Here is the input.
Amino acid sequence: MKKTVLLAAAAALFAATPAFAQSGGSVGLNYTSIEDDEEGYQIDGAFGSTSGAVGFQIDAGYGQFDDLDTQTLAGHLFYNGGNWRLGGVFAYTNLEFSGDGVDETAYGIEGSFDLGPQTVALASYTMGEAEFLVDLDTSFFDVGLNHYFSDNFRVGGAYGFGNIDGGAGDVDASHWRLNAEWAPFTAPVSFTAGYNSFDVDDSGDSLSSWSIGARWGFGGSTLRERDNATPFDARTGFWQRFYDVR
Here is the structure.
């Protein structure tokens, strides 16, 4: 029911949106390998637009692994200051483990700032409610940096730290990821690669994954223009960070 309502809301937002000055997005297919022998594919998509000082972005994804299915939907609304953007995000994640499902909602603030024509800094603070045997309250602060060696070649990195509270106790956690995207052709096709690591502090528990994929972009002649329309590529929820879910 939750998924149906969220998808209906996203469709209504698309239908009600007028023509915008700058819009674009992408659809991607990724192969992901997770350290505990889970491997599979994820489909992700994003669409964003700005009109003057107001912008929005919607992204969604679906993944199918050996013993895990994932679904995500997120909405972003932000103020566009030209070389900086600041706004809010709300995200929903659903995981299915061999018939058992867990849900998560997360929300927070996020922003990006152009340090120059080729470098963009990103930051976010998010809170959420997740499930894992017990209900979990989570909070994370993330920072990142993207550098464009050309308008069609981007390399980025992000680091985050936060807290996971299960009621009876809480633990601190941290994560980091590296990613790159390259569009070598005149056709709007790009190739992606990424590495993700999640660590529970003071316990030695960690999980890492890597991925490769391809994307079809629209609404911009270069990767840089497409990213201007969809500026946020963060992992909003706890489960998104843990499994590198798109």
